[in-house]
Write a structure and sequence with these properties.
The chain is built from 6 helices and no strands. It is mainly alpha-helical. It has a single domain, classed as Glycosyltransferase (Alpha/alpha barrel), CATH 1.50.10. Pfam families: SQHop_cyclase_C.
Length: 134
């Protein structure tokens, strides 16, 4: 859910850039509602459950991208700061991130066996932190 909502925000922001006067009020209202929805589904630990990738790492990246596209920043958005804190808390000793597919099944963040990093999880976490300005 968070991934699709984020993608809608990003698409509408891009559309608005190219066609700034076309249905401006409707588009702004939709972006605002989608932005608020992303905020409303954030978990208390700062994460979002992701459905399109494994799982909380992908959800956090998607959420941060959407919130930033909607105009939020690390400075003005507690949810982005909380998401960054969540991601940083999951960094493994080698400096990467490694989330197991079991997170999707169990709906609880689960590290890869042996606290191993994975290139894809590491990429998503780093992209989220970069998008947040961190």
């Amino acid at each position: 859910v968070v991934e699709c909502t984020s993608a809608v925000i990003q698409a509408l922001v891009a559309f608005r850039k190219h066609y700034p006067e076309h249905r401006r009020e409707e588009i702004d209202k939709c972006i605002h509602k989608a932005d608020n929805f992303i905020l409303s589904i954030q978990r208390s630990d700062g994460s979002w459950y992701g459905s399109w990738g494994i799982c909380f790492t992908h959800g956090a990246w998607s959420a941060v991208r959407g919130l930033v596209a909607a105009g939020r920043t690390f400075k003005n958005c507690p949810a982005i700061r909380k998401a960054c804190g969540f991601l940083l808390s999951k960094e493994v000793p080698s400096g990467g991130w490694g989330e197991s597919y079991l997170s999707c099944r169990d709906k609880v963040y689960t590290e890869l066996e042996g606290r191993r990093p994975h290139v894809v999880n590491t990429s998503w976490a780093m992209l989220a932190l970069i998008d947040a300005g961190q």
